[in-house]
Write a structure and sequence with these properties.
Mean pLDDT of chain B: 82
Oligomer: heterodimer
CATH superfamily of chain A: Response regulator
Low-confidence stretches of chain B: none
Structural class of chain B: alpha+beta
CATH topology of chain B: Chemotaxis protein chec
Number of strands of chain B: 9
Number of domains of chain B: 1
Strand content of chain B: 15-25%
Largest sheet of chain B: 7 strands, antiparallel
CATH superfamily of chain B: CheC-like
Structural class of chain A: alpha/beta
CATH class of chain B: Alpha Beta
Mean pLDDT of chain A: 93
Radius of gyration of chain A: 13 Å
Helix content of chain A: 40-55%
Distance between the termini of chain B: 12 Å
Strand content of chain A: 15-25%
Shape of chain B: globular
CATH topology of chain A: Rossmann fold
Distance between the termini of chain A: 25 Å
Low-confidence stretches of chain A: none
Chain lengths: ~130, ~220
């Protein structure tokens, strides 16, 4: 099954890195990009993606705030915050916002695990 | 492809920003262990400027008197890195690092050592991460604590090469108990800046899987 993934990062290079990892894992999945939180919200309102992968430390609204807002919009989107900032408080806030936390530099294995875990949680019957 | 100041392209500056972000995030993780509370980081702003411009930028801050921890590095890239913050925040930083409720006398006694150690941890984490990602090894000197105004830090020292550039990184390290703001600056000579440009090009290739020159224009 082909899914749609939204990649949000203010760095074009970082977006290219995530796109590359995604294409290696799932060449047939569709990816779209946004360079900040507002642009990401606009993209989601046009068409809801299956997954959103976002940077934490961005100018304007940060990734965790964006994750909370997306979670409020749609409970089914698989959301991951990707950050080099691995302080425990950041990881906890990301999880509290309903997002997975993936460390930067992003590895293919971490990304694959995130997709698998999200798919598994979706296949469980809703309470 | 567009070029920015001193010959780095927009994508190379973007890559440098990502490298610095990795380095500073690692530094913050270590710093968090020292101060036992979250260290808030601003989005790093990276620019390459002349020493005169760096002096002007730092000189425009509210506080003129600054303290810096400085370390030299050697390898494919040679230069020095500085962690700079307002001198008025120096004792706050020491208090945060030392922990507990030390007396003013104790803080003053520990100031030099605590600053050197903080700088050592932050700068090593930052430089080490950048060097690892560039797949190069850097030899890093012991830290020195220096006091002065911005010009004192960027005027050439005996070990600087002629025509040094400053890789200037603005970043806030905010710690709730002290509201401590810091800046990181790296001074590189022109041959090192050219070497850095090449290493960043190789990093972009590894990261994106395509030659840096083939990558479309950034943003």
């Amino acid at each position: 099954m082909s899914y749609k993934v939204l990649i949000v990062d203010d760095s074009k290079l970082a977006r290219m890195g995530v796109t590359r990892a995604l294409k290696q894992l799932h060449p047939d999945w569709e990816s779209v990009e946004a360079s900040n939180a507002e642009e990401a919200l606009a993209r989601v309102k046009e068409s809801v993606p299956d997954f959103v992968l976002m940077d934490y430390n961005m100018p304007g609204k940060d990734g965790i705030t964006l994750a909370s807002e997306l979670r409020a919009l749609d409970a089914r989107i698989g959301i991951a915050v990707i950050s080099a900032n691995q302080q425990i408080e950041v990881i906890q806030r990301a999880r509290a916002a309903g997002a997975a936390f993936l460390p930067k530099p992003l590895t293919d294995a971490a990304l694959a695990d995130f997709f698998t875990a999200t798919a598994a949680s979706r296949s469980r019957p809703e309470k | 492809m567009s070029t920015s100041s001193l010959g780095l392209t927009e994508l190379e500056l973007d890559a440098l920003g990502e490298l610095v972000n990795l380095g500073v995030s690692n530094a913050a993780l270590n710093f968090r262990e020292m101060v036992k509370e979250e260290v808030a980081l601003s989005v790093p702003e990276v620019s390459v400027v002349t020493p005169q411009e760096a002096t002007r930028i730092l000189g425009n801050q509210e506080t003129k008197l600054l303290v810096a921890v400085q370390q030299y590095f050697e390898g494919d890239i040679n230069g020095r890195a500085l962690l700079i913050f307002p001198e008025t925040k120096s004792l706050e930083l020491v208090r945060a690092v030392v922990g507990g409720t030390p007396s003013l006398e104790e803080i003053i006694e520990l100031e030099h050592e605590a600053l050197a150690e903080t700088g050592n941890v932050l700068l090593n984490a930052c430089l080490g991460t950048i060097a690892n990602n560039l797949q190069r090894n850097l030899k890093i000197s012991l830290p020195e604590v220096i006091y002065g105004e911005s010009g004192d830090f960027f005027n050439g020292t005996a070990r600087d090469g002629p025509g040094d550039s400053v890789l200037f990184i603005y970043i806030n390290f905010a710690v709730t108990c002290g509201d401590i703001q810091g800046y990181i600056a790296m001074l590189l000579d022109m041959p090192s800046l050219l070497a850095l440009k090449q290493l960043i090009g190789a990093y972009i290739e590894r990261f994106t899987g395509q030659p840096a020159t083939a990558v479309p224009h950034a943003n």
